[in-house]
Amino acid sequence: MTPPAVTPQPQPEAAPPEAPRPGALLARLRRLTWVGAALGGLWLAGLLTFAAHIPRAPEDESATTDAIVVLTGGSERLETGFDLLAAGRARKLFISGVYRGVDVRALLRMSQATPTALECCVVLGYSADDTLGNAQETARWMQAEGFQSLRLVTANYHMPRSLVEFRHALPDVRIVPHAVQPPNVRLDGWWHWRGTAGLIISEYDKYLVAFLRHAFGL
User: Fold this and answer.
1) What is the pLDDT of residue 104?
2) Which stretches make up the DUF218 domain (predicted)?
3) Cβ atoms within 10 Å of 192's Cβ, excluding its own
């Protein structure tokens, strides 16, 4: 006996997805706005703190170290480095981030220093292209020399980021910051000066990237 045919039952159609309610979209938008405002507030507070702590003068000018390290980027830095070396603040001067083809005599002439007096104690580093490279290049040189302390010479606005990189690359080395004041960087009322404000904001963002990179081990 043939069983009766089973007629397939029609399946109920799936209900269309419920569209988000206007109230839910508005609540989500408000949350995102609050998050964005909070992050912006933190960034602004950090910027103001960063700017307030840019060094206005060198730290402990009379201290002696094994080496003086100058990061290229301004004639004031080179002159300061040569003056410190001439004053006996260290045994050697290391200039990091020098262009290929530039020699010690050329840098001494640029800074109006006396070649015969300082040439023997100046070493140039050619491999660094940025602040991270400066720190790594200096670390290799310091290790080769067996030095345990250095005076770091760079522009005042650049010093916070430089210290982040150098302290990470040279954790066991004593670092004495020696900030140079570029004449075109106006720290008093810096927000009124477009060039200085742009420079400080840019440097603050780079500082944050360097700090977070080391904080998260990237």
Assistant:
1) 87
2) 66-188
3) 9
For residues 68 and 83, what is the distance between their CA atoms, to the nearest angstrom? 11
Q: Give the tens place of pLDDT for each residue, 187-208.
A: 999 999 999 999 999 999 999 9
Which residues, other chains included, contact 50 with Cβ-Cβ below 8 Å and sequence gap of 6+?
160, 200, 203, 204, 207
Report the pLDDT value the prediction gives residue 17, as an integer from 0 to 100: 62
Indicate the domain borders of the chain: 67-185
- The domain defined by 67-185 folds into Rossmann fold (3.40.50)
* CA 180 – CA 154 distance, rounded (Å): 6
- In eight-state DSSP terms, residue 158 is G
The strand ranges marked E within 3-161 are: 67-71, 92-96, 122-125, 149-155
Question: Does residue 19 surpass a pLDDT of 80?
Answer: no
User: How confident is the model over 14-40, as a mean pLDDT?
Assistant: 77
CB-CB contact of 64 with 88 (8 Å): yes
